[in-house]
Amino acid sequence: MLLNNNVTEFILLGLTQDPGKKKIVFFFFLLFYLGTLLANFLIIVTIKTSRAFGRPMYFFLFYLSLSDTCFSTSIAPRMIVDAFLKNNTISFSECMIQVFSFHFFGCFEIFILILMAVDRYVAICKPLHYMTIMSWRVCSVLVVIAWVGACVHSLVQIFLALSLPFCGPSVIDHYLCDFQPLLKLACTDTYVTNLLLVSNRGVICTVSFVMLMFSYVIILHSLRNHSAEGRKKALSTCIPHIIVVILSFGPCIFIYTRPTTTFSTGKMITVFYTIGTPLSDPLIYTLRNAEVKNSMRKLWSKKLISDDQR
Asked: pTM for the whole thing?
Protein backbone atom coordinates (compact mmCIF):
# COMPACT_ATOMS: atom_id res chain seq x y z
CA MET A 1 0.00 0.00 0.00
CA LEU A 2 1.32 3.44 -0.93
CA LEU A 3 1.66 5.59 2.16
CA ASN A 4 0.51 9.15 1.47
CA ASN A 5 2.14 11.05 4.33
CA ASN A 6 5.21 13.05 5.25
CA VAL A 7 5.38 11.86 8.86
CA THR A 8 8.03 9.32 9.89
CA GLU A 9 7.51 9.54 13.64
CA PHE A 10 5.03 10.76 16.23
CA ILE A 11 5.49 12.55 19.55
CA LEU A 12 3.52 11.09 22.47
CA LEU A 13 2.55 13.68 25.07
CA GLY A 14 1.71 10.97 27.59
CA LEU A 15 -0.47 11.50 30.63
CA THR A 16 1.45 14.54 31.89
CA GLN A 17 4.45 16.73 31.09
CA ASP A 18 5.21 17.51 34.74
CA PRO A 19 8.47 15.75 35.84
CA GLY A 20 7.15 15.10 39.35
CA LYS A 21 3.91 13.61 38.10
CA LYS A 22 5.87 11.54 35.57
CA LYS A 23 7.59 9.75 38.46
CA ILE A 24 4.19 8.94 39.94
CA VAL A 25 3.07 7.62 36.55
CA PHE A 26 6.24 5.49 36.36
CA PHE A 27 5.68 3.79 39.73
CA PHE A 28 1.95 3.45 39.09
CA PHE A 29 2.38 1.74 35.72
CA LEU A 30 5.33 -0.36 36.91
CA LEU A 31 3.41 -1.61 39.95
CA PHE A 32 0.31 -2.47 37.95
CA TYR A 33 2.29 -4.09 35.13
CA LEU A 34 4.33 -6.28 37.48
CA GLY A 35 1.11 -7.19 39.29
CA THR A 36 -0.50 -8.10 35.96
CA LEU A 37 2.44 -10.31 34.97
CA LEU A 38 2.55 -12.05 38.36
CA ALA A 39 -1.21 -12.63 38.69
CA ASN A 40 -1.69 -13.92 35.16
CA PHE A 41 1.51 -15.98 35.36
CA LEU A 42 0.17 -17.75 38.45
CA ILE A 43 -3.08 -18.61 36.67
CA ILE A 44 -1.30 -19.76 33.50
CA VAL A 45 1.14 -21.98 35.41
CA THR A 46 -1.61 -23.35 37.65
CA ILE A 47 -3.84 -24.35 34.74
CA LYS A 48 -0.97 -25.63 32.62
CA THR A 49 0.39 -27.91 35.36
CA SER A 50 -2.91 -29.19 36.76
CA ARG A 51 -5.51 -31.61 35.49
CA ALA A 52 -8.08 -28.82 35.45
CA PHE A 53 -6.59 -27.62 32.14
CA GLY A 54 -8.61 -30.31 30.40
CA ARG A 55 -11.87 -28.64 31.43
CA PRO A 56 -13.24 -26.05 28.95
CA MET A 57 -13.68 -23.33 31.58
CA TYR A 58 -10.01 -23.49 32.56
CA PHE A 59 -9.01 -23.92 28.94
CA PHE A 60 -10.59 -20.55 28.09
CA LEU A 61 -9.34 -18.97 31.31
CA PHE A 62 -5.80 -19.91 30.28
CA TYR A 63 -6.18 -17.96 27.03
CA LEU A 64 -7.85 -15.05 28.82
CA SER A 65 -4.83 -14.72 31.13
CA LEU A 66 -2.50 -15.06 28.15
CA SER A 67 -4.32 -12.32 26.24
CA ASP A 68 -4.35 -10.06 29.32
CA THR A 69 -0.58 -10.49 29.66
CA CYS A 70 0.11 -9.73 25.99
CA PHE A 71 -2.41 -6.89 25.91
CA SER A 72 -0.76 -5.17 28.87
CA THR A 73 2.73 -5.83 27.45
CA SER A 74 1.80 -4.05 24.21
CA ILE A 75 1.22 -0.82 26.18
CA ALA A 76 2.81 -0.73 29.66
CA PRO A 77 6.58 -1.25 28.99
CA ARG A 78 6.80 1.68 26.61
CA MET A 79 4.76 3.87 28.93
CA ILE A 80 7.10 2.99 31.80
CA VAL A 81 10.19 3.87 29.75
CA ASP A 82 8.62 7.07 28.37
CA ALA A 83 8.04 8.31 31.92
CA PHE A 84 11.82 8.85 32.18
CA LEU A 85 12.32 10.41 28.75
CA LYS A 86 11.99 14.09 27.98
CA ASN A 87 11.00 13.67 24.33
CA ASN A 88 8.78 10.66 23.78
CA THR A 89 8.89 9.81 20.11
CA ILE A 90 7.65 6.68 18.35
CA SER A 91 8.37 5.81 14.75
CA PHE A 92 5.54 5.37 12.26
CA SER A 93 6.18 1.62 11.94
CA GLU A 94 6.34 1.15 15.74
CA CYS A 95 3.09 3.07 16.04
CA MET A 96 1.39 0.75 13.55
CA ILE A 97 2.73 -2.30 15.40
CA GLN A 98 1.30 -0.97 18.65
CA VAL A 99 -2.07 -0.31 17.00
CA PHE A 100 -2.13 -3.86 15.64
CA SER A 101 -1.06 -5.60 18.87
CA PHE A 102 -3.32 -3.42 21.03
CA HIS A 103 -6.41 -4.24 18.97
CA PHE A 104 -5.41 -7.84 18.31
CA PHE A 105 -5.14 -8.90 21.94
CA GLY A 106 -8.04 -6.66 22.98
CA CYS A 107 -10.34 -8.21 20.38
CA PHE A 108 -9.10 -11.71 21.18
CA GLU A 109 -10.01 -11.13 24.83
CA ILE A 110 -13.53 -10.13 23.78
CA PHE A 111 -13.95 -13.35 21.82
CA ILE A 112 -12.60 -15.43 24.72
CA LEU A 113 -15.12 -13.81 27.09
CA ILE A 114 -17.86 -14.78 24.62
CA LEU A 115 -16.60 -18.37 24.55
CA MET A 116 -16.51 -18.46 28.35
CA ALA A 117 -20.15 -17.34 28.40
CA VAL A 118 -21.05 -20.09 25.92
CA ASP A 119 -19.26 -22.60 28.13
CA ARG A 120 -21.20 -21.50 31.22
CA TYR A 121 -24.48 -21.58 29.31
CA VAL A 122 -23.93 -25.15 28.11
CA ALA A 123 -22.67 -26.29 31.53
CA ILE A 124 -25.68 -24.89 33.41
CA CYS A 125 -28.52 -25.11 30.89
CA LYS A 126 -27.51 -28.32 29.08
CA PRO A 127 -25.43 -30.26 31.61
CA LEU A 128 -26.17 -33.71 30.12
CA HIS A 129 -24.74 -32.69 26.73
CA TYR A 130 -21.90 -30.58 28.11
CA MET A 131 -18.98 -32.91 27.36
CA THR A 132 -20.33 -33.62 23.88
CA ILE A 133 -20.89 -30.00 22.90
CA MET A 134 -17.81 -28.54 24.61
CA SER A 135 -15.35 -31.24 23.59
CA TRP A 136 -11.61 -30.61 23.44
CA ARG A 137 -11.75 -30.44 19.64
CA VAL A 138 -14.62 -27.96 19.60
CA CYS A 139 -12.93 -25.71 22.16
CA SER A 140 -9.67 -25.75 20.19
CA VAL A 141 -11.47 -24.84 16.97
CA LEU A 142 -13.31 -22.00 18.74
CA VAL A 143 -10.03 -20.57 20.06
CA VAL A 144 -8.50 -20.73 16.56
CA ILE A 145 -11.54 -18.88 15.20
CA ALA A 146 -11.04 -16.28 17.94
CA TRP A 147 -7.38 -15.84 16.90
CA VAL A 148 -8.40 -15.44 13.24
CA GLY A 149 -11.22 -13.03 14.08
CA ALA A 150 -8.90 -10.87 16.18
CA CYS A 151 -6.33 -10.85 13.39
CA VAL A 152 -8.92 -9.77 10.80
CA HIS A 153 -10.14 -7.00 13.09
CA SER A 154 -6.60 -5.72 13.69
CA LEU A 155 -5.75 -5.82 9.98
CA VAL A 156 -8.79 -3.64 9.30
CA GLN A 157 -7.48 -1.12 11.85
CA ILE A 158 -4.05 -1.12 10.18
CA PHE A 159 -5.58 -0.79 6.70
CA LEU A 160 -7.61 2.24 7.83
CA ALA A 161 -4.59 3.79 9.59
CA LEU A 162 -2.31 3.34 6.57
CA SER A 163 -4.90 4.91 4.31
CA LEU A 164 -4.80 8.17 6.28
CA PRO A 165 -2.55 11.00 5.01
CA PHE A 166 -0.43 12.61 7.73
CA CYS A 167 1.06 15.99 6.85
CA GLY A 168 1.89 17.26 10.33
CA PRO A 169 1.84 18.19 13.13
CA SER A 170 2.78 14.78 14.49
CA VAL A 171 1.98 15.30 18.18
CA ILE A 172 -0.36 12.69 19.70
CA ASP A 173 -2.11 13.89 22.83
CA HIS A 174 -2.03 10.43 24.40
CA TYR A 175 0.33 7.88 25.94
CA LEU A 176 -0.21 5.26 23.22
CA CYS A 177 -0.78 4.91 19.51
CA ASP A 178 -4.42 4.17 18.89
CA PHE A 179 -6.60 4.77 15.89
CA GLN A 180 -8.71 7.54 17.42
CA PRO A 181 -5.78 9.83 18.35
CA LEU A 182 -4.33 9.23 14.88
CA LEU A 183 -7.59 10.36 13.27
CA LYS A 184 -7.09 13.81 14.78
CA LEU A 185 -3.73 14.16 13.00
CA ALA A 186 -4.96 13.18 9.54
CA CYS A 187 -4.96 16.05 7.05
CA THR A 188 -8.21 14.98 5.39
CA ASP A 189 -11.88 14.60 6.15
CA THR A 190 -12.13 11.62 8.52
CA TYR A 191 -15.92 11.46 8.81
CA VAL A 192 -16.28 8.24 6.79
CA THR A 193 -13.22 6.69 8.44
CA ASN A 194 -14.63 7.51 11.86
CA LEU A 195 -17.90 5.82 10.92
CA LEU A 196 -15.94 2.74 9.86
CA LEU A 197 -14.12 2.80 13.20
CA VAL A 198 -17.38 2.99 15.16
CA SER A 199 -18.98 0.28 13.01
CA ASN A 200 -15.92 -1.94 13.48
CA ARG A 201 -14.69 -1.78 17.08
CA GLY A 202 -17.72 0.05 18.47
CA VAL A 203 -20.22 -2.46 17.11
CA ILE A 204 -18.07 -5.42 18.17
CA CYS A 205 -17.95 -4.12 21.75
CA THR A 206 -21.62 -3.12 21.98
CA VAL A 207 -23.13 -6.18 20.30
CA SER A 208 -20.84 -8.55 22.21
CA PHE A 209 -21.73 -6.87 25.52
CA VAL A 210 -25.48 -7.08 24.84
CA MET A 211 -25.19 -10.73 23.80
CA LEU A 212 -23.12 -11.61 26.85
CA MET A 213 -25.45 -9.90 29.32
CA PHE A 214 -28.49 -11.48 27.66
CA SER A 215 -26.88 -14.91 27.89
CA TYR A 216 -26.14 -14.44 31.59
CA VAL A 217 -29.73 -13.34 32.18
CA ILE A 218 -30.85 -16.63 30.64
CA ILE A 219 -28.33 -18.56 32.72
CA LEU A 220 -29.35 -16.88 35.98
CA HIS A 221 -33.04 -17.40 35.14
CA SER A 222 -32.45 -21.12 34.56
CA LEU A 223 -30.90 -21.46 38.04
CA ARG A 224 -34.39 -21.40 39.55
CA ASN A 225 -34.69 -25.10 38.70
CA HIS A 226 -31.41 -26.02 40.39
CA SER A 227 -30.78 -27.03 43.98
CA ALA A 228 -29.37 -24.56 46.51
CA GLU A 229 -25.94 -26.16 46.22
CA GLY A 230 -26.15 -26.13 42.44
CA ARG A 231 -27.11 -22.45 42.40
CA LYS A 232 -24.23 -21.59 44.72
CA LYS A 233 -21.72 -23.43 42.55
CA ALA A 234 -23.06 -21.86 39.35
CA LEU A 235 -23.05 -18.37 40.84
CA SER A 236 -19.44 -18.81 42.02
CA THR A 237 -18.39 -19.16 38.37
CA CYS A 238 -20.91 -16.82 36.72
CA ILE A 239 -20.48 -13.77 38.98
CA PRO A 240 -16.74 -13.38 38.22
CA HIS A 241 -17.56 -13.65 34.50
CA ILE A 242 -20.20 -10.93 34.74
CA ILE A 243 -17.90 -8.60 36.69
CA VAL A 244 -15.08 -9.08 34.18
CA VAL A 245 -17.46 -8.50 31.26
CA ILE A 246 -18.69 -5.21 32.74
CA LEU A 247 -15.17 -3.99 33.56
CA SER A 248 -13.89 -4.96 30.11
CA PHE A 249 -16.74 -3.76 27.92
CA GLY A 250 -17.74 -0.60 29.80
CA PRO A 251 -14.60 1.42 28.95
CA CYS A 252 -14.41 -0.17 25.49
CA ILE A 253 -17.94 0.96 24.60
CA PHE A 254 -17.31 4.43 26.04
CA ILE A 255 -14.12 4.89 24.01
CA TYR A 256 -15.05 3.40 20.65
CA THR A 257 -18.73 4.29 20.18
CA ARG A 258 -18.27 8.07 20.35
CA PRO A 259 -17.41 10.14 17.27
CA THR A 260 -13.78 11.23 17.44
CA THR A 261 -14.53 14.50 15.71
CA THR A 262 -17.02 15.46 18.42
CA PHE A 263 -15.64 14.11 21.68
CA SER A 264 -12.17 13.59 23.10
CA THR A 265 -11.25 10.24 24.57
CA GLY A 266 -10.74 10.28 28.33
CA LYS A 267 -7.17 9.29 29.11
CA MET A 268 -8.00 7.97 32.56
CA ILE A 269 -10.65 5.63 31.15
CA THR A 270 -8.08 4.37 28.66
CA VAL A 271 -5.62 3.84 31.54
CA PHE A 272 -8.19 1.72 33.36
CA TYR A 273 -8.95 -0.25 30.19
CA THR A 274 -5.32 -0.88 29.25
CA ILE A 275 -3.68 -1.23 32.68
CA GLY A 276 -6.38 -1.83 35.27
CA THR A 277 -8.47 -4.48 33.49
CA PRO A 278 -5.60 -6.93 32.77
CA LEU A 279 -4.80 -6.87 36.50
CA SER A 280 -8.39 -7.01 37.76
CA ASP A 281 -9.32 -10.04 35.62
CA PRO A 282 -7.01 -12.58 37.34
CA LEU A 283 -7.75 -11.09 40.77
CA ILE A 284 -11.50 -11.47 40.24
CA TYR A 285 -11.19 -15.05 39.01
CA THR A 286 -8.94 -16.10 41.87
CA LEU A 287 -10.80 -14.28 44.65
CA ARG A 288 -14.38 -14.93 43.48
CA ASN A 289 -14.03 -18.35 41.84
CA ALA A 290 -13.72 -21.11 44.45
CA GLU A 291 -12.54 -23.72 41.94
CA VAL A 292 -9.72 -21.58 40.61
CA LYS A 293 -8.71 -20.57 44.13
CA ASN A 294 -8.70 -24.17 45.39
CA SER A 295 -6.74 -25.40 42.37
CA MET A 296 -4.09 -22.73 42.89
CA ARG A 297 -3.91 -23.46 46.62
CA LYS A 298 -3.45 -27.20 46.07
CA LEU A 299 -0.85 -26.78 43.36
CA TRP A 300 1.33 -24.25 45.16
CA SER A 301 1.02 -26.01 48.53
CA LYS A 302 2.29 -29.21 46.90
CA LYS A 303 5.14 -27.24 45.35
CA LEU A 304 6.12 -25.74 48.69
CA ILE A 305 6.02 -29.16 50.38
CA SER A 306 8.18 -30.71 47.64
CA ASP A 307 10.69 -27.83 47.94
CA ASP A 308 10.91 -28.32 51.73
CA GLN A 309 11.59 -32.02 51.32
CA ARG A 310 14.62 -31.42 49.14
From this structure: 0.86
